[in-house]
Amino acid sequence: MGYLKKNINLLLLILVVVLVGYGLSLTAYYESSFRDVSTKYYEKVNEYSSAIANLQERERKLNETSYELTRKTKDKEKLGEMYTSLSDEKEQVEGELNTAKSELSTAKDDLELTKAVLSEKSAELDSVKGKAKSISEDMEAAVNDLMDDINDRSNLSSGDVDSLFDDINQLVDDLKGVS
């Protein structure tokens, strides 16, 4: 029993040393594995953080693009409405312009016609004035001849003759006023 006690202590000592060695080996192995896992974990956390930051940046850009697209769509709709409005207004103004051109053309035609009529009437008036002047001169000459004849042949008093001649001269002057 003494041998067994001595061997048991040695056996226990060897067992303890083996267990301690095995424990140290496991600790070293798990520490190494934990370090590798921790390193990989932090690398993955950094990758995920980078990916999240990248996704957030893309989301921000996507939101900006969406906002710009919405704004451009609204602007396009406004421009479309303005174009339609301006197109309608242009057509209305063109219609008014065509109407005004037509009225102007009619007015020009009327003006030309009126000028022609005025020219014709002016020529007629000049002709009538010439005839009136000619008649007036002829009448004046006839009156003078008549006065001379009456004075030569008449037994009327000179006051009556002068009165008649004054009336005739008045008529001649009225005819001159016409010319």
Provide a concise account of the structure shown.
The protein is an all-alpha fold and 179 residues long. The chain has helices at residues 2-153, 158-178.
Determine the oligomeric state from the structure.
Answer: single chain
Q: Tell me about the biggest sheet?
A: none
**Strands, total number:** 0
Order of helices and strands: HH
Determine Rg (CA atoms, Å).
Answer: 67 Å
Shape: rod-shaped
Give the integer mean of the pLDDT values: 84
Overall tally of domains: 1
Which blocks of ≥5 consecutive residues have pLDDT under 50?
Answer: none
**Annotation field: number of helices:** 2
State the distance separating the first and last CA atoms.
Answer: 181 Å
Helix content: over 70%
Q: Which structural class fits the helix and strand makeup?
A: mainly alpha
Percent of residues in beta strands? under 5%
Description:
By secondary structure, the chain is mostly helical. The chain has one domain. Helix content is about 95%, strand content about 0%. The protein has helices spanning about 1-155, 160-179. The longest helix is centred in the middle third of the chain and has 152 residues, at about 1-155. The radius of gyration is 67 Å and the shape is rod-shaped. The chain starts with a helix and ends with a helix. The relative contact order is 0.03. The model has no long low-confidence stretch (mean pLDDT about 85).
Note the topology:
Elements: H1 2-153, H2 158-178
Keywords:
rod-shaped, mainly alpha, about 180 residues, about 0% strand
